[in-house]
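Exercise 7. Given the components listed, write out the predicted structure of the assembled complex. Treat all entries as one system.
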Amino acid sequence: MNSSKLSVFEHPIRIYWEDTDAGGIVFYANYLKFFERARTEWLRALGFGQQVLRDQSGGMFVVSETAVKYHSPARLDDTLAVTAELQSSGKASLTIAQRAYLRTTGGSDRLLAEGTIRLGWVDSITLKPGRIPAPVLEALK
Amino acid sequence: MNSSKLSVFEHPIRIYWEDTDAGGIVFYANYLKFFERARTEWLRALGFGQQVLRDQSGGMFVVSETAVKYHSPARLDDTLAVTAELQSSGKASLTIAQRAYLRTTGGSDRLLAEGTIRLGWVDSITLKPGRIPAPVLEALK
Amino acid sequence: MNSSKLSVFEHPIRIYWEDTDAGGIVFYANYLKFFERARTEWLRALGFGQQVLRDQSGGMFVVSETAVKYHSPARLDDTLAVTAELQSSGKASLTIAQRAYLRTTGGSDRLLAEGTIRLGWVDSITLKPGRIPAPVLEALK
Amino acid sequence: MNSSKLSVFEHPIRIYWEDTDAGGIVFYANYLKFFERARTEWLRALGFGQQVLRDQSGGMFVVSETAVKYHSPARLDDTLAVTAELQSSGKASLTIAQRAYLRTTGGSDRLLAEGTIRLGWVDSITLKPGRIPAPVLEALK
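Answer.
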């Protein structure tokens, strides 16, 4: 990792058979899962577990937009480092920038995929849009 | 299909990239999904949609036991015929026997996987065990 | 479906338990799977099965970019109509526009999600970029 | 964990949105994925990465039989401890016993699911059955 990423949250992901497809590489849709695991751990590190957040606020995040570019494939047994950082935020939505790097023993990580995930906030029961809880917004900034 | 299967419910499944793994074949855990799709369509054909059943009864099926034998692998673009039939039933649980066949143009289908799925019934909110609605039990027999 | 979609390829998708998450709605990453099933069936309808294409040409499509907007959630037992149409094409890549509609009994379908998928072409073994087979490009136009 | 499990390999698994379904609990088929992650890490800890094993031997493990009992559901944000231990082995197949426990802060873990996975060995290209490499068999015992 280069120095510019030192302040970015990073989560390790191991590639298993379940993640691959008959092309011999990781199925592209699974990067959305990897990105979400990293976002979830980032929020948890900031003090916000998804279930606790839902129980306490009655609301939850929903994904409203995703954009991903795939640069290079990952394979079985690879270890990835997946990052998450806030790109922009408003009262009702957030955009998170995320990247997946291949961790190599040499230390020069390779960018595999990058993207942005836009999140909205909804009531857990009615699914009607609402405001993101202020403590969450403040913690992410 | 041979004549002995004529009375068994059967649902077609197409194999896509998402179903395969780096071994070049269908990932074994996915047969549980294929079996469930067939069970769901069987129940629907008998008049019981999963969501309607849940809304009306306040309960839902949960899987309590699975046993699957894998005989031969499926590959990308294959078409499978997945069957479902009642093996045994009680007031609180059901066991469904299921098979996945490879559909071939020649007409002699090959058995890929077979198994049994035991279902219990629980309250949707509390997840406490309950009795399977009588109309469902009667329809399945 | 309104008349403007009459010439667009459309593939039906049923929502099962496997497609949903604890939010009670379809997990957003799964729309990439639904889009791929529709693309695959579109190509098949044009005469190009994925596996045959790979066996004959030694190459395969890989997804290089995805962009999806989520407008409204799908739920268990819903039936979706997923479309695929060519947005642009070059010798080495294609962009496909896709939409997922909720099929309703009333006939007025609701747009659930829409996006674009950019595909490149690579050698199946080396994964090096190559040119999309000309017959495929011609058929898609 | 009680003392009887001290010698058993154990792998932690976190539950994310991707693992759950609209019942609000972990989708049962996903335990097969959790079991496989634990088996894979167990083999890795013994010196056998899946991809290296495949590259060096030309063969790979395939699952020939699974049997799982589900005792209690896991939910979003739960942490599981998944175990793997050899139950029996022959020259061409292995049976692994696996359990998934809910990790609680109090220290009294709850058994969620348990099962056995039978593995065979096949040539990676032809998928014909073969003998499990002797070093793998010896390491597992």
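Discussion: Confidence is low (pLDDT under 50) at residues 1-5 of chain C. Strands of chain C lie at 9-14, 59-70, 79-89, 93-102, 110-123.
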